Amino acid sequence: MTVVATGGLDVSPSYMWVNGGEDVSFTATGGEAVWDGPGLDPKTRRSPTCKLKNITGPTTVKVFPPNIVYVATNGVDEAGRGTAAAPYKTIKYAINNTAAPLDVMVGDGTHTVAPADLPSLAGDIRVIGESRDETIVYASQYQAGKAVFTLNDPYAVVVNVTVKILAAAYMGSNVGAAFDITSGTVTNVLCTACGSAGGTGVVNLR
């Protein structure tokens, strides 16, 4: 079996003889890797080393870097941006205008989100804060029953952010959760005022 690597990634080994029914692995260096191929262990899709199970014949594995875009409080939501030097303004715009697999790198600061800006992660999308305590997603104008982040894919991830929700006492107690998770992972996050004064809580699991 062979590996097709793009985006400047190097793979070891670059090919392998398989007799049939074997478990094999490959390791990529040179940047973030996304793997795709038959028999792929889904837990290793976004790992430096992938694992493939029960390979029975000639096949091809692909490895490539994710799309990476940047979001900052001083950014602008318009076409042609999304780089570290010229970031987007909102997480939702970054997600809606960039193909998955995608890493959205969110800079430190308070990112105020209106109801129309609440991001939905419905694909292989990772929202990665610069630092947990300083990357703040603040829902200041909230809609009842809507979470700040909605995760609907097994590869959806939110990591290193603080979610702050305006206290429900000032919103008629109509506050949704910080995270609404059908499928996905939330790691190393903080919540401020989540579920307070009548809010529905930190996480809804479906």
Give the tags.
206 residues; single chain; mainly beta; 4-stranded parallel β-sheet; 7-stranded parallel β-sheet
Structure description:
This protein is mainly beta and 206 residues long. It has one helix at residues 91-96; strands at 2-5, 10-12, 22-29, 34-36, 49-55, 60-64, 67-71, 102-106, 109-113, 120-121, 125-129, 135-139, 149-159, 162-165, 179-187, 190-192, 203-205.
Radius of gyration: 20 Å
- The average pLDDT is 86
Task: Specify the oligomeric state.
Answer: single chain
- What is the overall number of helices? 1
Distance between the termini: 39 Å
Spans of at least 5 consecutive residues with low confidence: 168-175, 196-200
Quick one: overall form?
A: elongated
**Secondary-structure class:** mainly beta
Number of E-state strands: 17
Largest sheet: 7 strands, parallel
